[in-house]
Every structure is written in C-alpha cells, then in structure tokens.
Amino acid sequence: MPPEQTGADQHYRALERLYASAPVNSLFDSTLAITGEGVSRLTFTISEDVYHAAGAAHGTIYFKMLDDAAFYAANTLATDTFLLTTSFNLHFTKPVRGGEVVAEGKWVSGRRRVMVAESRLVDAEGDEIGRGTGTFMRSRIPLSSLPGYVS
After folding, report:
1. Are 143 and 151 in contact (CB under 8 A)?
2. Strand 99-109 and strand 39-46: pairing?
3. Residue 148 half-sphere exposure, CB side, CA atoms within 13 Å?
4. What DSSP assignment string belongs to the chain?
5. Which of 19, 40, 111, 114 is the most buried (most CB within 10 A)?
6. Nearest one of 100, 92, 99 to 129, comparing CA atoms
7. Quick one: pLDDT at residue 1?
C-alpha cells in the first residue's frame, strides 16, 4: 500500500492534473512533475511542427515552456487560488532543433499576492538554451473550481 499523501503532495498532484487537463497542453508532447515546494519540472519533446522558417523551435515554444515551469513552481505556494502571469522576461541562448527539452522552474520570492519565479531550459545535450523570470499574481479563481485540479 502506498504511503499516505500529505496535503502538499495532494496539491502537487492536483497541479499536475490541472496542467494535463488544459486544452492547450494537448498540442504539446509534455509532462509536468512537481517534486516539492517552489519547484517544477516540465519535459517537452520538440519536433518540426513547432519550427520557424529557419528550422528551429519558434520563440513561442520557449515562452510556453519557461512560463509554465515558473508558473507551476509559484503555484505550489498558492493552495487556494489560480495564479496569473502578469509579466515575463526571457532570454534565448541557443536554438533547439529537436529532442527532449527540460524546463526547470523555481520560486524566488513572494507568498501573498504577487510571486516571482524563474525558469531555465536545458536541451538533450545538457546545454542551457533559454532562461526566464516571471511575476505571478493571485486571481479570484479558486483552484477547487477547476475540473482538472479536483479530478
């Protein structure tokens, strides 16, 4: 029999379900894992269907991966409401043409209304290909009202 989950573990698994249930995420080969407070890890598989005209992943994909990783790292600290991204800065350091990319998110500061989290992207060779910092604000949307969160 598996050990009893803590309240935090239940919240983390619910956030993972929430990620998987979002319609936009059906467009990507990606999975979310939350291993502890303020930490998230997303694994994406990059393929040609997300390329720009020069044959590498479009910047929107970098943003998606970085924003999601930072967002979920921050939302581990908000157990009652859904967070909203209010700003996000990103830096591209290397193009990626395919394979697995890991987005690592880490909460930096804030716990009440506004939170800051950072994220980085690492390609299959272990090179950092992008980095970002986001600001996230609590919304008025209760997590418990979202079907993916409660399943």
Report:
1. no
2. antiparallel
3. 12
4. -PPPPPHHHHHHHHHHHHHHHSGGGGGS-EEEEEEETTEEEEEEEE-GGGB-TTSSB-HHHHHHHHHHHHHHHHHTT-SSEEEEEEEEEEEE-S---SEEEEEEEEEEE--SSEEEEEEEEE-TTS-EEEEEEEEEEEEEEEGGGSHHHH-
5. 40
6. 92
7. 38
Encoded tokens for 99: 């394979």
Q: Please state the domain extents for the chain.
A: 7-150
Residue given tokens 């800065």 in the structure block = 89
The label of the residue with tokens 């998110």 reads: 105
Per the structure block, which two tokens stand in for 52?
């720009």
CATH 3.40.50.10260 describes domain 7-150: no
> What amino acid occupies position 136?
F
**Angstrom distance (rounded) from CA 8 to CA 67:** 22
Mean pLDDT lowest among 1-5, 79-83, 97-101? 1-5
